[in-house]
User: What shape does this take?
Amino acid sequence: MELVDLAARLSCDFLGAPDLDIRGLCDPHQRRPDALLFVERPEKGVPEGAAAYLVPAAFRERIPSDGRAWILAEHPRKAFVACLGIFDPNRPVFREGRASHLPAGCSVGRNVFIGPGVILHASCRLGDDVLLMGNNFIGPGVSLGSRVVLHPGVVLEAGCRVGNDVTIHANTVVGSDGYGYEKGPHGLVKVPQIGTVEIGDHVEIGSNVSIDRATVGATRIGRGTKIDNLVQIAHNVQIGEDCLIVAQCGIAGSSRLGRGVVIGGQAGVADHAEVGDGAMLTSQAGIVTGERVPPGSVLSGTPSIPYGEYKRQYIYLRRLPELFKQLKKEKEH
Assistant: This one.
């Protein structure tokens, strides 16, 4: 892509030869003469060896007159993110393609690509610009909105509903049975899980995530929420809009997360807990059964406590050997 075209797509000014060919992005340690390098803090130095440099617009007055090419961005990180999308060699490409046989009752929109090994059940519905990469299972009554991307191996079991602009990564299962058993005269009796899963618009779900169907009603993932890899979301969980849930978290049945909640890696939320809007659980935090986390709070530890208190306790804990030795000396005297 020529420098002038890239700058236009980014809505940025540029300095240098307009027809300079840029073929990708590079990092500071592996610079390429045909690639763009993002330098967030150029005042600390700009390494040589790249085709052009993406820098903050405020750096304009300090650009060296050495013939190098520059893209000047008012919002450099946003421009960098846009460049990642432009030059992504693995981005999903929507193209025409259909399975040779579609079951009766299956509704498929425009510009849908169905890869190899996809199983579509009757009565499922696919919106426009849907991409099923391959080996996907779409169960009966499943509904997909427009611009949905399912990476290889994604399973959507019966009755699940997915909104628009949703991406689900490889080997994630949506709609598996919730974990429910009751004691019976001859052992544990499985509780039927007859609900479903609803996923809102603009949600992204990582690989190897399990989202269980509700016992009754729906397990819900709110609009704009982003879920990392290896997360377990149990039956009847309600997750609000714009939440961030990092890898290896577990959220137990009937818990509720408000809007804008952030959950760090390996944190756990026990059943019937409620996490208020804008709250943050740091990595490995543990919320006990039925706990109510106030909106905007930051909690750490298991069981969780306010982050400031957790830090103080941690400092005291590290000093225990020293305090023990001091106490022992005092007793000896």
Notes: The two ends are 80 Å apart (CA to CA). The mean pLDDT is 92.
